[in-house]
Amino acid sequence: ARTIADNARALGLDWGYILHQMTVETWLAAPQQQTDRRRYQLIIADPPYARLEDDILASLSSFLAPGGVIVISQTSKRPSPELPVALIKAKTYGDTTLSFYQAK
Predict the structure, then answer these.
(1) How many whole angstroms separate alpha carbon 69 and alpha carbon 66?
(2) Pairs from 54-58 (Cβ < 8 Å, separation ≥ 24)
(3) Whole-prediction pTM
């Protein structure tokens, strides 16, 4: 998280983003997520491969703004998850696949 914040500052992007440092389950369960329903242009999900849960990822994708993108890092041994947003690209790098989805 510190590296992300440092890189954002170095690029002059140290405003206009929110970096959450917690598990996605904790974030989704927070009361403000149910009342605020903030929409995001970009969500990057890098769950431990053994804990890639489609229902959690589907819940997370519901926070995308129209045209927003969610990128999911996963093992290349498994197909891209089926989510309620459109899979637009999947790129494999060795043992890892990055799946890119976009909200309509």
Answers:
(1) 9
(2) 54/81, 54/82, 54/83, 56/24, 56/25, 56/28, 57/81, 57/83, 58/83, 58/84
(3) 0.79
